[in-house]
Amino acid sequence: MSATGGPIVEDEYLYKVIDAIEQVALDVNKTVPQVALNWLLQRPTVSNIVIGARNEEQFRQNLGALGWNLTKEQVARLDAASQQRPIYPYWHQRDFEERNPKPTHW
């Protein structure tokens, strides 16, 4: 298990998600961070993201997440790889459309 001050996350889960992001990154000729940031930006409940670049090069790399979109299939692949049962009290809200809006753009 990996933990660095946040919630404990199983290594198997982390590797499953990273493997999916890496495969999509190869498909779209982008970096793993660019795919991850683009994926986040396409979430219906995310209005913006804050990036913490350590230097100008990393900042410029992160900007490569803009100006393009993952396909529905790629988003579905990443969503499937990252899907897990939410913790209480969120598990019971998962089927309520008004609390968990589905993506409306692509």
TrEMBL record:
Question: Which Gene Ontology cellular component terms are annotated?
Answer: cytosol
Q: Which stretches are annotated as coiled coil?
A: none
Q: Which parts of the sequence belong to the NADP-dependent oxidoreductase domain?
A: 13-81
Task: One Pfam family, please name it.
Answer: Aldo_ket_red
Know the name of this protein? Answer: NADP-dependent oxidoreductase domain-containing protein
Species of origin reads Stenotrophobium rhamnosiphilum
Lineage in the entry?
Bacteria, Pseudomonadati, Pseudomonadota, Gammaproteobacteria, Nevskiales
